[in-house]
Amino acid sequence: MAKVAFLLANNFEDSEMKNPYEAVKNAGHEAVIIGLEKGAEYSGKKGTVSYRADLGASEAKADEFDAVVIPGGSAPEALRVNDDIVRFVKDMDRQGKLIAGICHGPQVMISADVLKGKAATCYIGIRDDVKLAGADYRDEEVVVSGNIVTSRTPKDEPAFIREILARLN
């Protein structure tokens, strides 16, 4: 059983959190929500789901997790400016652990400087940022490059989830 961190702030893309989170739990893994503040409630931008943070960013330690998932929406913009979130993602990368981001999720990877030399995809609106971060941008439903898994939009969720689960088992 793997322990998977989900990074959340307000206005995440509802399905990009809900579907991978439920898939990870249904596969028997432990899913832990890390927010900017422990106990805070974070709502999706469509208002269909909300989650309470199990841990605050300052408490998150990479050596206690096997993987991290970063849903898209507007949340990654709030997450990427938090030093503790950036440190956590950097540490996960240094330890060679799975880092998965969909849509705007790779914004956190850009701030953590973990995309250099990797292939990646993302929401088209941040494509140039991903390229400038040193990644080989690919317009594909899911891109796996070493310990990094990325996808573009909610329609790519099945492929994104499939690749996450394949690496957890």
Task: Name a few traits of the molecule.
alpha/beta, Rossmann fold, 7-stranded mixed beta sheet, two-stranded antiparallel ribbon, 24% strand
For the termini, the CA-CA separation is 8 Å
Provide the residue-averaged pLDDT.
98
- Runs with pLDDT <50, length 5+? none
**Helix content, binned percent:** 25-40%
**Total strand count, please?**
11
For the record, what CATH class applies? Alpha Beta
Name the helix and strand elements from N-terminus to C-terminus, one letter apiece. EHEEEEEHHEHEHEEEH
CATH architecture: 3-Layer(aba) Sandwich
Strand content: 15-25%
**Domain tally:** 1
Largest sheet: 7 strands, mixed
The spatial strand order of the largest sheet comes to 5-2-1-6-7-11-10
Specify the CATH homologous superfamily. Answer: Class I glutamine amidotransferase (GATase) domain
List the SSEs and their pairings.
Layout: E1 3-8, H1 14-26, E2 30-35, E3 41-43, E4 50-52, E5 55-56, E6 67-70, H2 75-79, H3 83-94, E7 98-102, H4 106-111, E8 119-120, H5 127-132, E9 136-137, E10 142-145, E11 148-151, H6 157-168
Structure description:
With 169 residues, the protein is an alpha/beta fold. It has one domain (3-168): Class I glutamine amidotransferase (GATase) domain (Rossmann fold), CATH 3.40.50.880. The chain has six helices and eleven strands. It has helices at 14-26, 75-79, 83-94, 106-111, 127-132, 157-168; strands spanning 3-8, 30-35, 41-43, 50-52, 55-56, 67-70, 98-102, 119-120, 136-137, 142-145, 148-151. The protein has a seven-stranded mixed β-sheet with strand order 5-2-1-6-7-11-10, with helices on both faces. The protein has a two-stranded antiparallel ribbon with strand order 3-4. It has a two-stranded parallel sheet with strand order 8-9. A hairpin with a 2-residue loop joins strand 10 (142-145) and strand 11. Helix 1 packs parallel to helix 6 (157-168). The radius of gyration is 14 Å and the shape is globular. The protein starts with a strand and ends with a helix. The model has no long low-confidence stretch (mean pLDDT 98).
